[in-house]
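Hi everyone, sorry if this is the wrong subforum. Our group has a chain we'd like a structural model of before ordering constructs, and none of us has done structure prediction before. Sequence below.
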Amino acid sequence: MKSFRFCFLMLTIAILASPALSDLVLSKVDRRIYLTSHIVRISSTVKVENAGPEKESLVLLAFPEQQAKNMAYLMATPHEGKGKVKNPVVALPVEAANPKDMPAALTFYSVSLPKGLAEGDSFTFDVLAVFTHALRPIPEQITQADIQLVLYQDSAHYLSPYAVKVQSLSVKLPDSRIESYTKLENTKIHGSEIKYGPYENLPSFSYSPIAVHFESNLPFAVAQELVREIEISHWGNVQVTEHYKLIHGGAQSKGEFSRLDFLARPNVRGASAFRYLVANLPPRAHSVYYRDEIGNISTSHLRGDSKKVVLPEGSSDISVAASFPVEQWQETKISHLDIDGRPVVVLKKTNVVPQHNQFFQVYYHFSQLSMLREPLMLISGFFFFFVACIVYMHADISISKSSASYLAKQQWEEVQAVIQQVQNIISRCLTTHDNLEASLRDLSRTGNIQACKAARKAADGLLKELSKELKPLLTFLQSSPSAAQVLPKVEELVAKERELQEKVMVKHSTVVDGYEKKLGARDIENRVALQQQKLTALRQEVDDLLEFIDEI
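Answer:
Right subforum, don't worry. Here is the predicted structure as tokens:
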């Protein structure tokens, strides 16, 4: 902490020694810092006035050098005000600037206004700045049971080369649990939000360092490298393949990791771990697959939108238009039915944040003659395919409905349908178990024993109904010769689920009994610890059996 304070002190001295830049005045600045994820967003609404006789068309934005190094995105737009109809956002031009006689500790950007400001005129605009690696985990290493604390440092005053009449700052945190924060004049805290100001009549380059040390158990998912390959075909398809190299950018883990503790109490043992990834796909996306280094990823849910772009073979005069600076070069890729290979446009961008999810355009020339290469190859293939179809159509290889193979196929389809019904009933039983576990969590939070008992009663009734539905299905499978191969696994699945059901009920009764006897939470947890381990192992066995039967 001492080194950070020293850096802030040196920065403050350098800034306060800087002169004012022009006759522009910031009459009002509202700044909002969002620390609700590991990507820091700072949104500022700035009202600028011209107090001098000369027209002004540029407004300078100042950032400390260290903060500017971590800046991933910067955009300025006209402010439309509250209650007005939102029009499509038209960004104001923003460029890096290098004004004279300014300290090296600051980095400047210029915002071009739609029209010059005459004396007495004003203009209000919004500035969005996005930063990565702005949150530092302190402590830098934590155990599986520890919470994650991070530190953020900034200035309570809006850093600007212009005088500021009125300014305010709000810092929005992910939770109300705050370890420490800098207390200045006019500092208020409301739940998970810290407010500084308003402060009036601040001189240019006014700077007041603040630090916020707070709890943030949000997952710090960072892609060290992302390669996206977009392959274009003039036959109507676009294939997109993405390769991620992921790390956790928050506090590092120390000590041993217990998967059993993590599965039993994920919100306590590993609260800051990220458990899943979300991909937004276009509505027409299809044939989606995902896998890691060791194989296919089965625990996923598909709901039905930095790049590499592969153009059709024969493309020429290639150019790219992107809304932000990127490195680019060209390569060649050999694919199916290719002769010379397909041109590949490679676009590279570092320090990428969600705000960079924008459209880009690739322009290229494509000769119609080049489209004849692959069709000629395909025509030959289709010719031989049609010949094979003609031979197939003239051959009598039909199967009679009275044949043994047809009857066996029909019986197997009936067995498959019954097994699907059994799987659905078991899944509903598992959902009921999860609801009972949820009632215990509500009991520990509210202490409402009657509500917990009511949930138990409803679960008992539902499980009895599901057991009745299951009996005729098992009877059918036991009487069908076609089910002989899969029947032992189905019976084992039913037995394991019933054993799991009994242990869930025992745990539920034990916890409710403990609350009725007004035992402490630690005592209740110790009473069910062994039961919870057996429940976790049984649930895994049931899930494995479901997956095995589904593959059959």
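For your construct planning: Confidence is low (pLDDT under 50) at residues 1-17, 303-307. Residues 95 and 106 are 15 Å apart (CA to CA).
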